[in-house]
């Protein structure tokens, strides 16, 4: 009995199994069969040779024109064999050294399958020592034995140790003995779509005899990938609904009402809608799991604060987790200021029913920490602000009712679980991100969360003008940029200057050598820039620095000084990337902007133009001749729509990064599904999964689906454990 779980060794032989394991990490028959062809060669429609790129590993079919031997001028005893081949339009050559016998074995006019890395010789693409395999001649294409009788040849992602047809052979060996596997997809679902069952689908995707066969098989197997994932999410959402939580309903005249009354601005319609949704969530005695995504500066914090106050006015506690200490400190300051006497619980001048806000970060002194912890365990502090590191700590809460996670879209399901586990009763959870996530990605990564989106910016928010400054082409523009900084400061405003690296003796030497090797100019270091500017173009201005190697108290002091207007210019690394809010800052100069991700640039520039004055962002780059880099920067400069930028960014990245999966090691469970391109598939799979789980939560009637779900959950769990 050969199943998808059978080990490969006994089926394909020990040597092949070892090779497959080494090259692709395959262990089971299922692993091999999930290595789907990358594409297919249709023998009826030969591939074009006119667009082979040097460096590519290619597999294609071509007809041999002629084969000739030459002796090498440098060493007449050595030979070079040149095979010319054509696809009918383009003729190229393959070169072999010291294989003169090939002249006899490769016949002109024969069809050959070629595989190898494309090289270049005298400006022409060519192959050196490709692997070749003769295809049956025209007449014998009907020969069933050949395997190519089908007319469609699968092409697999191959490596230098395993050629595409070796994979093809291994797959054929496996398919010959495979017993039909259980199907995870409900029969009615696949029949309604005209899809084959799993067994047929696997055969058709690997050994199609027509285009429609692999097409249908691919559709179905792609749906499977989305379906298993969405079944996991559907089950999780169901589990949340079964879990108890403490309801935190509205308290008329309570903290929320009093806070909203004194807000210096009107909440946007979007904010009100989200607050309404959260209020309804919190009224239920099941935990809220909501994702709030919003454009940079859309005002997520005040929404979160209202949610926190709702819990506090019900006698509970809320914690706000920020990704960096700088951001935690800023949240703490701004929340305390905004609450005013509402945050002075038990203190002189505190309002009635007032609470207390406490900051808790990893680098706090022992005494301050002890005080904070005491307030937290006693319930004295209604609101706790801290870094994500707080998760690792054993902080005891009197009554933790809500966890807000700010600016973290990678915050994993398991990390949420870890936090929730600590509370006796599950707290409500609100995750906030300003990195806009395309809908499908949200469905795939946060499929177990309800999603709210804040699209509009508060009224009166100023435009940010973004300009690319290519200093290699226009050195004078940089001088002009520094002049602009002076003008901005002369008008009483403030400026950020952002660098990619800090500099100083212990700066990563490796990165420096790397960039020297790659011929790109070395990125400017913060410490060097500060010195240059202070003694040069920005002489006389009040310059401050902010970077990750500064002690926490110095970081806080720098940030506070900038916020208070005691500094004109803050030269910083990306520690200011998320959430920093200084309304008087109107200009940002980003040095080596080409080194940043697009969404990161969008985040960065979101720090300016937050007050009543328009923002200006200069993207300085010194790359020469890299058109893609310029295109990326131009894209950021051309739009302020974070969602479009995110989509553009994701297109340029690998799927794995989108899913937050690790770069190496584990193979992604998604082979055919692209979270960017296949939004309809994902949405449909989500609907089907919800119905299936509603009817049969334990998946008793679909054991194969149940197994797939458990297997995927297990790998996710394993990856999480490795990460922590
Ligand atoms: P983000 O969503 O990027 O976290 P913030 O919550 O930091 O944005 O809000 C940015 C700024 O906008 C803050 O100074 C905040 O006080 C202000 N703000 C929030 N909501 C409104 C509103 N409805 N009208 C005017 N300003 C607002
Ligand atoms: Mg924010």
Radius of gyration: 31 Å
Structural class: alpha/beta
What CATH calls the topology of the domain at 464-639 is: Rossmann fold
* Percent of residues in β-strands: 15-25%
- What is the spatial order of strands in the main beta sheet? 11-12-10-13-14-9-15
Biggest sheet, open or closed, and with what strands and sense?
Answer: 7 strands, parallel
Q: How many DSSP H or I helices?
A: 25
Question: What secondary-structure arrangement, pairings included, does this model have?
Answer:
Layout: H1 8-12, H2 14-24, H3 29-33, E1 39-42, E2 57-71, E3 79-86, E4 91-97, H4 102-105, E5 111-121, E6 124-128, E7 131-134, E8 152-155, H5 164-177, H6 187-192, H7 198-206, H8 211-242, H9 255-261, H10 269-283, E9 289-294, H11 300-313, E10 317-322, H12 325-339, E11 357-360, H13 366-378, E12 383-387, E13 400-405, H14 413-422, E14 428-433, H15 439-445, E15 450-454, E16 464-470, H16 475-490, E17 494-498, H17 509-517, H18 526-535, E18 543-546, H19 552-563, E19 569-572, E20 585-590, H20 598-605, E21 615-621, H21 627-638, H22 642-652, H23 655-658, H24 679-695, H25 703-723
Parallel strand pairs: 4-6, 9-14, 9-15, 10-12, 10-13, 11-12, 13-14, 16-21, 17-19, 17-20, 18-19, 20-21
Antiparallel strand pairs: 1-8, 2-3, 2-5, 3-4, 5-6, 5-7
Helix pairs in contact: 7-8, 8-24, 8-25, 9-11, 10-11, 12-19, 15-24, 20-21
The structure holds adenosine-5'-diphosphate and magnesium ion.
């Amino acid at each position: 009995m050969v199943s998808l779980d059978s080990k490969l060794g006994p089926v394909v032989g020990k040597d092949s199994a070892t090779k497959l394991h080494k090259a692709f990490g395959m262990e089971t028959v299922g692993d091999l069969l999930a290595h789907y062809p990358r594409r297919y060669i249709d023998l009826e429609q030969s591939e074009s040779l006119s667009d082979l790129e040097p460096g590519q590993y290619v597999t294609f079919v071509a007809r041999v024109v002629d084969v000739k031997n030459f002796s090498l001028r440098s060493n007449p005893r050595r030979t070079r064999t040149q095979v010319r081949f054509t696809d009918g339009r383009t003729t190229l050559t393959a070169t072999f050294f010291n294989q003169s016998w090939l002249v006899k074995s490769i016949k002109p006019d024969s069809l050959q399958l070629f595989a190898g890395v494309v090289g270049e010789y005298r400006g022409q693409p060519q192959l050196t020592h490709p692997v070749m395999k003769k295809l049956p001649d025209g007449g014998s294409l009907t020969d069933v034995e050949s395997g190519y009788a089908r007319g469609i040849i699968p092409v697999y992602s191959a490596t230098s140790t395993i050629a595409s047809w070796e994979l093809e052979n291994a797959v054929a060996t496996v398919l010959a003995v495979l017993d039909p596997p259980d199907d995870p997809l409900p029969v009615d679902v696949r029949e309604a779509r005209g899809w084959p069952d799993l067994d047929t689908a696997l055969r058709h995707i690997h050994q199609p005899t027509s285009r429609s066969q692999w097409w249908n098989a691919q559709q179905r197997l792609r749906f499977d990938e989305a379906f298993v994932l969405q079944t996991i999410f559907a089950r999780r959402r169901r589990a949340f609904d079964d879990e108890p939580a403490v309801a935190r309903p509205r308290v008329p005249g309570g903290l929320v009402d009093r806070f909203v009354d004194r807000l210096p601005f009107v909440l946007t319609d979007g904010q009100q809608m989200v607050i309404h949704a959260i209020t309804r969530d919190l009224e239920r005695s099941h935990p809220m799991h909501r994702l709030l995504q919003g454009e940079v500066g859309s005002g997520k914090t005040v929404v979160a604060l209202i949610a926190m106050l709702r819990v506090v006015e019900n006698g509970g506690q809320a914690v706000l987790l920020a990704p960096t200490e700088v951001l935690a400190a800023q949240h703490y300051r701004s929340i305390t200021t905004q609450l005013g006497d509402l945050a002075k619980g038990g203190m002189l001048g505190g309002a009635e029913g007032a609470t207390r806000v406490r900051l808790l970060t990893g680098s706090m002194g022992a005494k301050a920490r002890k005080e904070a912890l005491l307030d937290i365990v006693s319930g004295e502090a209604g609101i706790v602000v801290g870094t994500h590191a707080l998760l690792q700590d054993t902080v005891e809460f009197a009554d933790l009712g809500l966890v807000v996670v700010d600016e973290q879209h990678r915050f994993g399901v398991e990390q949420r679980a870890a936090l929730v586990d600590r509370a006796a009763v599950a707290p409500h959870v609100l995750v906030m991100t300003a990195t806009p996530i395309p809908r499908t990605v949200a469905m795939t990564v946060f499929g177990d969360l309800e999603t709210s989106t804040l699209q509009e910016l508060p009224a009166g928010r100023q435009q940010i003008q973004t300009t690319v400054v290519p200093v290699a082409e226009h050195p004078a523009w940089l001088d002009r940029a520094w002049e602009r900084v002076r003008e901005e400061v002369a008008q009483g405003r403030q400026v950020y200057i952002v660098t990619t690296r800090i500099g100083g003796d212990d700066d990563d030497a490796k990165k420096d050598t790397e960039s020297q090797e790659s011929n790109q100019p070395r990125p400017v270091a913060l410490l060097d820039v500060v010195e240059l500017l202070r003694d040069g173009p920005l002489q006389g201005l009040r310059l401050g620095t902010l970077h990750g190697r500064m002690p926490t108290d110095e970081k806080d002091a720098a940030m506070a000084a900038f916020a208070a207007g005691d500094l004109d210019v803050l030269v910083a690394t990306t520690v200011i990337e998320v959430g920093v809010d200084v309304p008087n800052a109107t200009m940002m100069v980003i040095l080596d902007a080409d080194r940043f991700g697009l969404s990161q640039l969008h985040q960065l520039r979101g720090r300016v133009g937050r007050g009543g004055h328009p923002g200006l962002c200069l993207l300085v780059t010194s790359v020469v001749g890299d058109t893609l880099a310029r295109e990326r920067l131009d894209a950021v400069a051309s739009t302020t729509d974070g969602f479009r930028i995110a989509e553009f960014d994701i297109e340029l990245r690998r799927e794995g990064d989108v899913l937050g999966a690790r770069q190496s090691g584990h193979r992604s469970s998604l082979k055919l599904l692209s979270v960017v391109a296949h939004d309809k598939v994902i949405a449909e799979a989500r609907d089907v999964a919800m119905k299936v789980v509603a009817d049969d939560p334990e998946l008793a009637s679909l054991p194969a689906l149940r197994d797939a779900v458990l297997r995927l959950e297990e790998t996710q769990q394993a990856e999480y454990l490795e990460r922590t």
